[in-house]
Amino acid sequence: MGSSTHLPDELAEVEQRRQLVRAALDQARAADEARRQQGVNPEKNPAQVPTSDPDSRVMPNKEGGYAPNYTPVATTDGERGFILDCDVLAEVNEGSAALPSVDRIEETFGRRPERFLTDAGNNSGQIMVGMEERGVEFYAPVESNQPQAGNPALRGDPREAVAESQWPDLPRNNQGRLDKSCFVYHESEDQYYCPQGHAMPFETTKPEKRGGEVIQKRIYRCGACAGCPLATACLSPKNKRGRTITRDQYEEVRERTAARMASESSRQLYNQRPRIAETTFGILKSVMGFRQFLLRGLEKVKTEWLWAATAFNVMKLSREIGKLRAEFAEMAASG
């Protein structure tokens, strides 16, 4: 006779499967909502929830293909190479880790980093503003949207047209049209000037979801595109209202960062980033054999990564102590 409080094994197994499916569906819906908040349409690009480890995310493998993965991140000291902070993310984009890492370093060591070097994946406006607010010099590949040396659009008076002989030298974007860097922004007038010297006044503001934040894009439109000799190089065939240029609230900090990166001293400093960042991961993988996580669940994986970083630092520390002992022994022998 069956128990009034327990299902038979064959039915209990089915119910357990249903619970697992419901849990997976709930996580998939939550992941889709998170993607929607980031501006991704989940109907066209739905989230994938791995059944083996629902906390993980399906990501590209460096060896090829896709698999459930996590993204380990580490902030490394540029002088000695110690790992100062580390974390694990259940997402591909690691941009959300930069500012919290700086804050944790300050909490742990009582001071913020003076400089922060990172790759192009962490060059969002939100991060640049956050670094400036914290008084941290930020170094990452950032291109200015304003004309630079060698661009014919860089001229003394933007109201004057670029000479026709220089039109072929005007930069093009990925669509083969005149790039945004061909248009000069005049701050006091709050308007752009096109390569023909026509004013492009502010028209309207349009919100856009980007990286989980609503960005307010200011739109500037040219009203003199009809009959313009550069129209075919500037406008898409479907554009009937004139060329537009957008500007968000991070444009100024983007320009400041691009100007910093343009100096020779900054380029020399940034060239040290592969040594500072990539060497750490190379040692963890090739020397210490840490090539994959053995545990499941985000919190357990974070603990595993923390232990790996601790082992790395202990190894570094033992080498540093060895160097100091050798130096002291040499000093004692020469003395």
Report the CATH C-level class of the largest domain: Alpha Beta
Per DSSP, the total helix count is: 8
Per CATH, which architecture of the largest domain? 2-Layer Sandwich
The number of E-state strands comes to: 11
CATH topology of the largest domain, by name, is Nucleotidyltransferase, domain 5
Report on this model:
- This protein is of the alpha+beta class and 335 residues long.
- The chain has 3 domains: 49 residues, no CATH class; 137 residues, Nucleotidyltransferase, domain 5 (2-Layer Sandwich), CATH 3.30.420; 88 residues, no CATH class.
- It is 37% helix and 17% strand.
- The protein is built from 8 helices and 11 strands.
- Helix 3 links the parallel strand 5 and strand 6.
- The chain is flat, with a radius of gyration of 27 Å.
What's the gist of this structure?
With 335 residues, the chain is α+β, with helices and mostly antiparallel strands. Helices cover 37% and strands 17% of the residues.
Question: Topology of this protein?
Answer:
Elements: H1 9-37, E1 57-60, E2 66-69, E3 71-76, E4 83-89, H2 98-109, E5 115-117, H3 125-133, E6 137-139, E7 184-186, E8 191-193, E9 199-210, E10 213-221, H4 231-234, E11 244-247, H5 251-261, H6 264-270, H7 273-287, H8 298-334
Parallel strand pairs: 5-6
Antiparallel strand pairs: 1-2, 3-4, 7-8, 8-9, 9-10, 10-11
Provide the descriptors you would attach to this structure in a database record:
3 domains, alpha+beta, Nucleotidyltransferase, domain 5, 5-stranded antiparallel sheet, 11 strands
